[in-house]
Amino acid sequence: MTHPRRPAIHAEAETEAEADQGSVQLADMDAHTFRDWLARDPGPVLVPVGALEQHGPHLPMGTDAFLSTAIAGSVARRTGGLVAQPFTYGYKSQQKSGGGDHLPGTTSLDAAALIHLTRSVTVSLFRQGVRRIVFVNGHFENYQFLYEGIDLALDGLGIRSGDDRSVLLLSYWDYVSDDTLRKVYPDGFPGWAIEHGGVLETSLMLHLRPSLVGLDRAVDHPPADLPRFDRLPVVPERTPESGCLSAPAGSDAVKGRLLFDQVVEDLSTDIRVEFGLETSNHTEKA
Questions:
Q1: Annotated active-site positions, please?
Q2: pLDDT (average), residues 138-161
Q3: Which of 238, 245, 256 is nearest to 219 (CA)?
Q4: pLDDT over 90 for what percent of the chain?
Q5: Residue 5: pLDDT above 50?
Q6: Is it the case that residue 286 has pLDDT exceeding 60?
Q7: Cβ count within 10 A of residue 233
Q8: 58, 148, 169, 240: which sits with the fewest CB atoms below 10 Å from its CB?
Q9: What is the pLDDT of residue 285?
């Protein structure tokens, strides 16, 4: 029995090998070094976004933030960027995508709170001289509220098309290629709607944070069969008892590394092209 599991020592770190190269986390950097970095026309500041949400009995509640932060860290190294503190709370878990906000352990923000947080952080980064921001979302329900917060920040600062300041918003799973999906799900991909606590997240965590995964506690059950509508208040018994919308059976660290490496490479390429950045394998220290 491996539960309770040893907590992560540094939740903001990327892979162990990359952490040995020196931190790309803003939280680890002094303000004067950051000032010098800004003066060099640098890469982007990446903002990981997650949630504190139940992921069944085998994954930690911080899974969404762990994954988005790890991806952001590796992308930062390849684009000459830095990583801001993650948003570790997210918008309300919904029954058809996260099991539901009624489940213990899920601690959520309302829409206004997430919008204002996003707006404030975006405005603050731009006012300090950051020109390129990338929000890396790891919690499905966050997306439109992040979009609204960014849009309000740009409007308030008067940033319009053609300005050299801009923001990219994405969810990391949108970068998982069809070829990778075929390798990770050899029997067929069940669909993004029920990938909560399932093979993708579990495999990524086995690659990145294996000490936090308790496969001995994982439950194998059929995928959730949910209606095409949302009913409020929720009908609790429609969520599988595990809290997962699909089972993690078939998860392993090899699949996790495949997912991670492919997403990081493709996302890094998009950012370099979109922002006109030269290829960078590491962030140059000030």
A1: 53, 55, 64, 139, 141, 196, 201
A2: 98
A3: 245
A4: 87
A5: no
A6: no
A7: 7
A8: 148
A9: 41
- Angle (CA) 68-74-78 rounded to 5° is 135
CA distance 235 to 95: 9
The separation between CA 151 and the C-alpha centre of its own chain, rounded to angstroms, equals 20
Residue 42 has pLDDT above 50, yes or no: yes
Nearest to 143 by CA among 175, 111, 120, 167: 111
Q: What CA–CA distance (Å, rounded) separates 131 from 84? A: 14
Nearby residues of 193 by Cβ (< 8 Å), 6 or more positions away: 96, 97, 245
Query: 120-130, pLDDT tens digit by residue?
Result: 999 999 999 99
Estimate to the nearest angstrom the gap between the alpha carbon of 61 and the chain centroid.
13
In angstroms, the CA 250 to CA 255 distance is 9
Report pLDDT for 125: 98
Question: To which H or E segment does residue 160 belong?
Answer: none
Q: CB neighbours of 260 closer than 8 A, spacing ≥ 6?
A: 70, 71, 74, 204, 207, 208
Strand pairing report for 45-49 and 166-171: unpaired
- Look at residue 74 and give its three-state secondary structure: helix
CB within 8 A of 135, min separation 6: which ones? 46, 47, 49, 118, 146, 150, 167, 168, 169, 170
How many Å from the N-terminal Cα to the C-terminal Cα in the chain?
46
Please count the residues of the chain: 286
What is the DSSP pairing of strand 166-171 with strand 82-83? unpaired
What is the rounded average pLDDT of the residues 90-107? 96
